[in-house]
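Budget justification note: compute hours in this period were largely spent on complex prediction jobs such as the one shown. Inputs:
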Amino acid sequence: MEFNIGDEYQEKFIISSEVVDKFAKFSQDYNPMHTDSNFAKNHGYAHKVSHGVIQLSYLSKIIGMDFPGAGAIWLNQTVSWLKPVFVDDEINFVLTIKEYSTSTNILTLTTEVFNQNKQKVMIGLAQVKMTIALSTNPQKLNKINAINSKVNSLSKKQLSNKKVALVTGASRGIGEEIAYKLASENYIVIVNYKKNKELANKTVSSIISLGGTAVSICADISIEDEVNLMAKTILKKWGRCDLIIHGATPSIKSIKAEETSYEDISAYLDVYLKGAILLVNLFLPNMKINQFGRFVFLGTSYLYATPPSGMAAYVCAKEALWGYTKALSNEIAHNGITVNMVSPSLTVTDLTTDVPARIKEVEAFKNPTRRLVTTSDIANQVLHLCSENSSYINGVNLPITAKPV
Amino acid sequence: MINFNQLKRIMSDILEVSLDNINEDSSPDNIEQWDSLSHIKLVMAIEAEFEVKLSPEDMTDMLSVKLIKIILEQKIS
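Corresponding output:
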């Protein structure tokens, strides 16, 4: 808050008999000068005289709530009552900044009170310290114009009150389960898919039949034009996109590290990393306007230890996505936008159908819970990260492994 | 397909538990006698009775009756 010497604040109050009676009761000051008009008259006053401290009470209200306002601590007050204030008088408070110490944040204010006849009834000097709010509350930027000018005009109007969630690779497996969970929590869900329209539409119709809202949009996440078109469609229809859950993946092939080519890695990189970058570039400006957003990227528990043989390309690309997650989370969280990764261990989905039963069963049995992670376990944690309550969980790679990593 | 009753009998003998107490979900979690020493005895008995050669990896993967079945079926097929 800025303070300038000479800044002034005025406020009027009427000293009603109700106020005076209540004050007498509260303070136990039943001096008949305040409560008995005959007594007042007999002592030379035309009406009951109000308690002088009532004026100080109103002064307390002004200092604490208006000028300088919330956060003010009253340090010192001198006061002289120059004339009596009578019941039913209208009194006008005039506070003016006399001094302001920027180093201590202490204000010196002249405090003057006038009656309806413009006679000065009270004068004094107040010292007030303005405390500074510590940064524990989510920061909201007041000035939207601070946000970069790249914001496209479509995204400025919010057409939906409900939060909108985009789930990539949502036609099946983990993405599908996340779509269901988000829809059940009243988010509008965009089911993104690349090839399998039928499965994506099945996800959408299941959500709708359960009372949720969902649409499917086809887009190859690794192709800029397609992601661009999808973003335009979403922002045009709803004017917002609050959650991006990026779970799309190419099918996973096992290739020995020494036989892996760069092309093998880029097949994954294009979906995981390039896809994430495109989504961030396209949706971040809209999230900044709303001062809220959640990015959740799908990782893998292989990031925590030595990956199994044959997974070099897959792990390299997920590792790159994790690097991007950390960097991005560090730079945008002050806008209320968090970026996290969830990393489950071997999950039973279409993607892992070819994994031999023995490997799955051993994995399950070596886990402290004696079972494999389910898509529901993962979706529950994604939901948690997406909630408003998770604003302080940022830049995390959350292990969904049921064991220490 | 392996003979599950044959496997159960071996386990019952080695681990000294009744046949009724052995099923697919049996494991060191629920059979107290199934410790590291009896596991070695068990693996040796299985090798002899089913006439299979098991690798050290097979032995460490035999974490439950279900897994023993999966591994034996892989060996026999």
